[in-house]
Structures are given as C-alpha cells and as structure tokens.
C-alpha cells in the first residue's frame, strides 16, 4: 500500500490508443496522435499509424475521441465508515473511474470522524482492498469536527493523510484555526477550508435572494462565505501557512481570493461543476437534488466563478461528490440533506456547457480537472513517455442521458440527472490499469 493512498491495483495494461485528439496542456499537446501503453507505462507517443505493437496489445480505435490525462478530484465523500448505505469506497471509486478519474481525495466527515491515525490507517487499509482507483484520505483539523481541540496532525501526516479539513463545517474559532496553521509548520499538509459563517447562514437551505423570498424560505447570504474566506486568508498570510478554499460559490469570494493571491498569500481554491453551471433558479421547484452547501447562487456569482476558473484565481475543479439515499433526498426541501453527486457527469457536463459554446478552451478545462491533486502534494497526471498511464478517453459521439439506466454510484442524487450529454468517458486507466471501459456503463 502506498503510504499516501490506498488502491487494490490490478494487472497493468498493454493498450494502443490510436487516432485520438490528444490534449495535455502540460506537454503542450493538442493534436491527433497514437499513444502506446506497455505494462502500464506510456512507452510511445507518435503520429497516427506509426506505432507497431505485438499480439498482446489491445488496440482501441479512438477516431472520435479525446484522450487526456485522467482527472483528479480533491473533494469527494465516500461515506466510509458509518454511512455505507449511501456510498462505499468500492462504489464511489468505481463511479470516479467511470467519470475519467485516476485519483480522488476523500473527506473525513464520516461516522466516526477520521480524526486520528488509527482510523486513518484503517481507511487506507480498506481502500487497498477495495478502491477501484487510488484514493487518498484527509484527516480532520479538530477532534470530532467540534472546532475546539486540534487533532494529531503530525502523526496523521506520518500515517498517510493527504491534508486536513473539517469539511462540512467551518473552523469557527479564529484562534483555533490560527493554532492549526501554526501546527502545520511542524506537521505539514495543506489545510482545506469549508467557508461558512454559521451565524449568517443559519443552516438555511438555499441562497438568500429572489428565489428564497418567492418560496418564503430562509436563505444564506453570500457574505457568510466571503467574510470567512477573507478572515482565513488573513490568518494564513500572517502565519505564512498554506490553505485551500473549498467549493467557492460567490462573486465576492472570487474577488477576495484574487486579491489575496496578488498579496502573496499561499492559497489555492476550487470550483464545483454545479456552481459553474447552475443558479438558484434550480431550487425554484424545491427539487432537493439542487440543495447543496454552499448553495447555488445568482447568475452574477456563476459568471464570476467561471471567470475565476479561467484566470487561475480558482485552481481546479472539485465535484464535492456527496451521495445520499433516495429516502433522505425525498424529504421536504428544508429537511433533505445538502449535497449532489458529481463524479460520473463532471467532465461531460462541463464539456457541453463550457467548452462547446466557447466559454473555456478544452486544454484549460483539462488542466483545471487534473490540478486538484497539486495542493495536496500529488503530481498531476500527464501524457508523457515514461509516465504511468493515467488516461481518460472521451467519446464525443456517445450521447447519453445522465442517470438513464442507473448510476455507477450507489446514490442517484445528481443535480444533472435527466440532462442529455453529447459525449462520455469510454476508457479510463489509473496507474496503468484499465479501470473503466464503455461496456461498464452500457
């Protein structure tokens, strides 16, 4: 077992992927090429028709495909331990493979909370037996996510923690967070922050605005997020610490992060597909699949998040994959839990809604979808000779309806369910192992 992730592994593949449009901005690739994988390693990248292979190599004709480095997700929930009726390590990582991912980083807000080295060691051991792709695990910042007593961050880093977060809850006490940032200098590891002033958000089920007023429901003001980001960036700057801001959703938040980066604050940030593509209007029918935290915001906020992703204020895409059972999500809107799944639809929906209309270039989207691992100390995948084959092939002609025929994930609470997608991941390799093929989702 790798000290920093768990994965059951598999037999390294021998595959020739021929005729695909190969897109890898880190290698300055955007052209039709052949790529040869031998025993799980990329051994040749060359013009179409120039690579010869032996009988043991499987050839994949990808004339209609886009071949990219497989994606990495810094923010998912695998509900293990304690909530396996929603998702397991096996089903969640299989869903990730179906979405083109080669590495996911799981949150610690489980039952019990992963707030000590023994629990962390146990999860990584379980992942080494069942994870379809490599899975890294964060540890909690505070014991039990209670926001008061710091965890054994240094010991958890030695055990293999990817970083630290109290995700789902903000570290409300600035003094506690400051101590954590100071501890980081000894322990190492990025501190990832869910930014929400609960005195302002008050657990409200949607954004404070036109829709909440029309429905007669309490709303969360955007300032509940942006003011906490400003506070935490100031603390990080003061302590020369490293922080990562999770699921940014407002115009003001993007502006704060942009300013802090200009000041030299060591901060990275992520955007989620639902905040890039949807607005509070999706809540107008009280569909609980559109209930997430932070909530869907206004069109101005959505455009600001897109702009931040384009200019690098926001460094990466993170799904915040948050599975819930049908029974839980079928409750009234106010009572249903926050969260949407996202691993299976992320690239396809962003390709349709951002790349196809020309709002963002394909190479830039690929860069942002492969960069989520960087703040947590992992090297991003790349299409280069000598590198492990972490590859995702996207079939641009494989039209499908999201959720039609079921999901790979155990849960169906996708805010993109029912949407027609113009393409689909048809092949994923992680660590040189074929972990997903088109047949797996047909």
From TrEMBL:
- What taxonomic lineage is listed for the species of origin? unclassified sequences, metagenomes, ecological metagenomes
List the cofactors. Answer: Zn(2+)
Q: Which residues form the Dihydroorotase catalytic domain?
A: 66-253
What GO MF annotations does this protein's record show?
allantoinase activity; dihydroorotase activity; metal ion binding
What species is given as this protein's source? freshwater metagenome
Keyword terms, alphabetized: Hydrolase, Metal-binding, Pyrimidine biosynthesis
InterPro entries assigned to the protein according to its UniProt record, in alphabetical order? DHOase, DHOase/Allantoinase_Hydrolase, DHOase_cat, Dihydroorotase_CS, Metal-dep_hydrolase_composite, Metal_Hydrolase
PANTHER family in UniProt? ALLANTOINASE
Query: Its GO CC terms?
Result: cytoplasm
* Record-given protein name: Unannotated protein
Q: Known HAMAP family for this protein? A: PyrC_classI_B
List GO BP terms, alphabetically. purine nucleobase catabolic process; pyrimidine nucleotide biosynthetic process
